[in-house]
Amino acid sequence: MATLLTASLGNKSDEPQVMAEMNTTPLIDVMLVLLIMLIITIPIQLHAVNLDLPIGNPPPPATPPEIVQIRIEGAGEVFWNGEPVADAASLERQLSEIAAQGTRPELHIRPDKSVPYRHVAGVMAAVQRHGLTKVGLVGSEQFL
Predict the structure, then answer these.
(1) Are 72 and 120 in contact (CB under 8 A)?
(2) Which residues pair with 72 in a beta bridge?
(3) What's the N-to-C CA distance of the chain in angstroms?
(4) What is the pTM of this model?
(5) What is the C-alpha separation between 101 and 124, in angstroms, rounded?
(6) Which of 10, 76, 105, 131 could pair with 66 as two cysteines, CB 3.0-4.6 Å apart?
(7) What per-residue string of b and e applies to 54-70 under the rule 16 or more CB within 10 Å gives b?
(8) What is the largest CA-CA distance in the chain?
(9) Three-state secondary structure call for residue 77
(10) Neighbouring C-alpha atoms within 13 Å toward the C-beta of 80
């Protein structure tokens, strides 16, 4: 009868038993931290910015802006509205003239596909030196 009693009490070894259940305490801690962070950040996300927007339709522009076409071809020849520019000093002079105007025109720079980049960069640097900001590279679809 003594053997039955020891069998029913289980293993008498001093080794700890392996738990077959998952410890959910760390998961609950993580969920509580996420819940607190969510509660803190929701009021910040709901703040609104009040804007005073104009009422009515904007007035149409009085006149369309003047456009100056600068074309760069071949080995760096520069054309100002279709007219050839003799040298870099002439281009600088023309750029300084339009920079002095009250309403500055838009510059459309159209480089040819075969032009080395240094010529295009030289024209764009000259435009930047004169403080002209309405500049666009036109014809870039030829490079696709």
Answers:
(1) yes
(2) 78, 111
(3) 94
(4) 0.54
(5) 19
(6) 105
(7) eeeeeeeeeeeeeebeb
(8) 120
(9) strand
(10) 15
